[in-house]
Structure formats: C-alpha cells, structure tokens
Design goal:
Largest sheet of chain A: 7 strands, mixed
CATH architecture of the largest domain in chain A: Alpha-Beta Complex
Number of helices of chain A: 13
Number of strands of chain A: 15
Distance between the termini of chain A: 7 Å
CATH topology of the largest domain in chain A: Quinone Oxidoreductase, Chain A, domain 1
CATH superfamily of the largest domain in chain A: Medium-chain alcohol dehydrogenases, catalytic domain
Radius of gyration of chain A: 20 Å
Structural class of chain A: alpha/beta
Largest interface: A-B, 36 and 36 residues
Order of helices and strands of chain A: HHEHEEEHEEEHHEHEHEHEHEHEHEHE
Helix content of chain A: 25-40%
Oligomer: homodimer
Chain lengths: 351, 351
C-alpha cells in the first residue's frame, strides 16, 4: 500500500478512516452505488502524479465506474436498488447555463463537477472517484448500463467510449464516409469500433505496423502506417474525418494533408501545446482542426444504448487494486490492450 | 526602372518586346481587357522577391485587376466592349472536378491557373498578371464590376475583398453575431466592412491602440487591444466567429480563448508555420481553427454585387507604376491605408 499512498489513494472504508475523509451521505436527489468495476484512464495517472500541477491530495481517481444501485433518494424515480449503472467523468454541473440546457454539461459555464479532484459542493473539499467501494451521485449524472453486454468491459465506455463517440456523432460521421482514427490505444480502439459501427470506411492510422492485425480485428478496413510517406501521399486529400487520439503534442501536418477539402480533424487526446501547424495546409483546402472532450450526459446514455444495440464494449485487461501501480506504469508505456479495469471486490481483500 | 527589373516587371508593350514575351491572343472564349487599375497585394511582393521560392521570372504581378472590355471572342455573350470588368486571383481551372462543379475553383483538384506565375495553358510558360496594359482571360473568370461604386477602389475587392467575404459567408456570419477581426491591414479593413454590413457586432482586435479611431470609422463597434490582458479576459468565451488576418505566424492561444463553445477562428493570412496551439484550448470548448483562401468565381461575383448594393469599396492610396518599389517597401512596413492601387495609365507615360 505504501507506494499507492505516495501519490494517491483508493477509498476503502479503512483508508478513508485513516485519512479522516467523510463519506458523502445520500440526499433526496442522489443515488448510492456499490462500485464493481472501475476503468483506468491515463488521466488518472496524470492526476495521481500531479502532472497537470492541479492535483489535490489525497487523490482517489477513477471516472469509469460501473456498479449496482444500493439506495436511492426520495426524488429518484428512474433508478432503483439493484440497477446496473455507470458514472463517468462528471458528477454534477450548474444545470442552468446554456451549455447545461443544451445537454452539454461538459462545457458547463460554471464548470462541471468532475468525478474526482474537483470542488465538492456537498462536503467542501474535493471529490473522490471510483477506485472505491461506493459512490453517491446526483441522479442526473447516473447512467443506465445495458444488461446484455459484459458489465466489466463497459467501464471504459464512460470516458474512452464517450470521448470518441461524441465527435464522431457531432461531426456527423455516416455510412460510407472515410474516417481515419489516429493512434491505437484506449481511445483509438473505441474510435475504430464506433466508426465501424456507424458504417464508415475506417482507416487505422498508426506509427506501428505491428498494430495492423489488431486494428483489423477491431473493425478497421485498412491500416495506414504514418511513417510510410509514399502511402500517406497516396491517401492525401481523401478523408472525410480524422479522429486524432494521440495523447501528446505531435506533428499534425501529415494528417492535415490527408483531409479532404472542408474536412475536420478532431483532437481528443492532446491537452498540451501542439507542434506548429502550417497555415497553408489549412488554408489550401478550407480544412479544420477542432477539439472535443467527453460528451454530455444525454449523449453518454445514447452511446451506452448504442453499445447495447451493437454489442460494443471495450477490450480490457482485469486487474486487482493491489496491482494499480504496475498498471499505471504499463499504461504510460502503452502496454495494455486496451484498457485496464479494476475489479473493485479486490479492495475488500486483505492487502 | 532598373530596380523594378531587379525582381520583377511590369508589362508595358515596350517591356514585353524587350523581354521577348508574347501577348496571348484572344480565342473564341476569351475577353480582352484594357487594364485601368491594379491593386497591390502583399503576395505580389512575396512573388516578386521570391519569398516562397517558387517564383518564375520575369514576374508580372497583380491580381486585383479592373479594366474595360476591348474585345470579346465569338462564344462570349455575357460581356461586351466597354463593360467595366475585373479579374482576380484566378484566370482558369479544370472546370470539371468536384470543386469546380461546386463553384469552388480556388480548390480545383488539378490546380487553378493563377493570374500570374502559374503554368499558362495557352502559351506554355507562365501567366502574367495585372501590372500591365491589357490582359486576355477566359470568359468564365471575368467578373462584372458594379458601375455605381468607385472603380479604382474596387480593385482590392478581387483579392482582399473575397478573401474576407468568403469565410464570413461560409461560416454564416449573421445579424447580431459577435465577430472579431484580428489585424487591421488590407484584409482586416475589408473584414470589418463586410462583417459590419452583414449586421454583426464587430470587434477590431489589434495590437495597436492607435488604430482604434480608424477601426471605428471602418465600421467596428468596439476595439479590443490584444496586449491588454485584462480586456482580453473580460471578452473570453464571447465571440461567435473570429477572422484572423495576421499575415505571419503568431500566438493564437489568446484568440482561441475569445471563442465561444463550438465557434471557429478562420485564418486567411498566415501561410506559414503557426506558433504552437494549446490542445486544451480547443478541447475545452469544442473550438475550431480553419483556413480559407479567396473564393470561387460565383461567390466573387456575389461579393461584388453585395459591394454595389451596400456601397462598399476598399480604402486606397493611388500610385503610379513608377512608385511601385517604394509602395512595396511601405506595404512590408504596413504603412498603407489600406491598399495601394496602381493607375495603369501611368504605364504609358515615359519613365
């Protein structure tokens, strides 16, 4: 346990007592959830390690939460004890601003309350995430999980899933479109699955030829190795949409060259300074670069229902909470296919 | 004359003879134009000075051409001798590809024939522009100039005008939108006039407080000095659209912060590597950066008609061709309000 505590914490009852952290009590509008599974997102690591210089300790990360309802407040009518539910990156927002009214809580003008490391309206202090036994969440931020798909493999849908589904839908990717997914990791592998399910001709664009076979299994129609200049040239100006999941700044000019006139490349990974883009590459085809972040609650539910209907889940590797530090290190090295999910029962085991 | 010849040429008949350049003869589909005025675009200077390393000498620049029809080919029915006409940045395109069929000849998939320094389909060699006594142009690339506005001040509409009008229209700027025009030069001053005529609330965004008075005369409702961090902060997240006319790479992050969620900043000036953009600034509001270049012939005619109806012309300073080198130097120093136009009669004078 000492290593974990060095940068973060998981919230077993014993831990909480030791850290003098109070559990949030359920209110009339809340749903109490016993957490069964929690996905491991790269941003968990950034927060635990304070890479973004805004972490508040103790950090209890986790925003890909799957569990069963154990109790509901008296105003809650859409969930009942025993329901399989999920909680993603947000647990609250102002619910009054234009963005919230348009079901885009991720852009709440007062700032959405993130699932962890965000100001807690109820208890003060900051919120604690899903590496925990339970969580209490406002009913408007609880999602219904289809029972017909593998519950543990739905966890990553709450972040990696909606992060890739939302831009594909917002930019209206449709049957027959040629869509490139750049980068095959947690986000990229969901991007390929969704774009394929939407009927697009999906090209996995990667620096690693070794990923070809996997990409095709996930649903890619083609694999384009970005280091192969000849192949990149052949596909120049042919893409209707590019989903760029690369988590760090990188040379985007070769990708911009792949776009058709008026087409867009959406960034969902890199929240840091990007390498210089050549203005001529955008101007010469009225091309666009945009950003996108998760999705609103309504769209997240739509995505989950879409996954139920199309039998889409994440490819996962299950771990116990005791292996979290090793898992973090492996995520940083991109050594996971394609998402770790913690079995939260392991939190109750002796460690 | 020696200085001009050092990097370019103007095409008087005497010059042409000396340089052994043949004039293009009129075909059945062509319009012959006696040039009266030609605007001086910054790209004329780039080409003449070979800044882009693709100039072909002798360069006869000029793509903001106004003149009178002197002769038409037998297939030409929409123009007749004496008509006031214009020629902009293109004189031909394949007229068969998807872009051409969509009236977007500037994105012709085979490459539009630019007015100068572009491969000449008729004579071989390269095309020669408007710093000349006359020009012969395919009828599809000749524009009709409204007679009710000052002819010499319409010249810059053919490049600076359409470059700013096209993105404002394409991104559907409308009455009540809050539009920022970044940079007050040849392009920016037209951007302010058009955005204002379209009914937008126009904010001139400039580094120079000294430009405030001028910006307001041109139609800006407000001036925002981008160096004033406090003022920039106050206007964060409030713009529906930004037209960025800055001709060189620059820090765009403060401007991205000005955009509303889902809003776009369009670049029309900088065709060179841009400074690094922070991915978080785009992702945090699903914001967009795009490029745009001139406009198609149909849209250019629409813009000219709009100018006729709304009494819009460029603010110009007239020069003789003999002062062109001085004018070039002044353009480079941004010492012009806001566009030089050459009186082409001066080409016939002794020099």
């Amino acid at each position: 346990m000492s290593e974990v505590k060095a940068y973060g914490a998981q919230a077993s009852d014993a831990n909480l007592k030791e850290l003098n952290i109070e559990r949030r009590q359920i209110t009339a509008d809340d749903v109490q959830i016993e957490i069964e599974y929690c996905g491991v997102c790269h941003s968990d690591i950034h927060q635990v390690r304070n890479d973004w210089k805004n972490s508040k300790y103790p950090v209890v990360p986790g925003h890909e939460i799957i569990g069963r309802v154990t109790q509901v407040g008296k105003n809650v009518s859409n969930f009942k004890e025993g329901d399989l539910v999920g909680v993603g990156c947000m647990v609250d927002s102002c619910q009054e601003c234009d963005s919230c009214k348009e079901d885009l809580e991720q852009f709440c003008e007062k700032g959405a309350t993130l699932t962890y490391n965000s100001k807690d309206k109820h208890l003060g202090g900051h919120t604690f995430g899903g590496y925990s036994e339970q969580i209490v969440v406002d009913k408007e931020f609880v999602l219904s999980i289809p029972e017909n798909i593998d519950a543990k493999a739905t966890a990553p849908l709450l972040c990696a899933g909606i992060t890739t589904y939302s831009p594909l839908r917002h930019w209206n990717v449709k049957k027959g479109d040629k869509v490139g997914v750049i980068g095959l990791g947690g986000l990229g592998h969901m991007g390929v699955k969704f774009a394929s399910a939407l009927g697009a001709h999906v090209v996995m664009i990667t620096t690693s030829p070794s990923k070809s076979e996997d990409a095709k299994k996930l649903g890619a129609d083609e694999v384009l190795v970005s280091k192969n200049e000849e192949d990149m040239k052949k596909q120049a100006g042919s893409f209707d949409f590019l989903l760029n999941t690369v988590p760090v700044g990188h040379d985007m000019n070769p990708y911009i060259a792949l776009l058709k006139r008026d087409a867009t490349m959406v960034l969902v990974g890199a929240i840091e300074p990007l390498d210089p883009v050549h203005g001529g590459g955008l101007i010469g085809g009225r091309k666009r670069i945009a950003g996108s972040v998760i999705g609103g609650i309504k769209e997240t539910q739509e995505m989950l229902d879409f996954c139920g209907e199309n039998n889409i889940v994440s490819d996962i590797e299950m771990i116990d909470i005791h292996n979290i530090n090793e898992a973090f290190d492996r995520v940083v090295k991109s050594d996971v296919k394609y998402r770790f999910v913690i079995d939260m029962k392991s939190l109750k085991n002796k460690n």
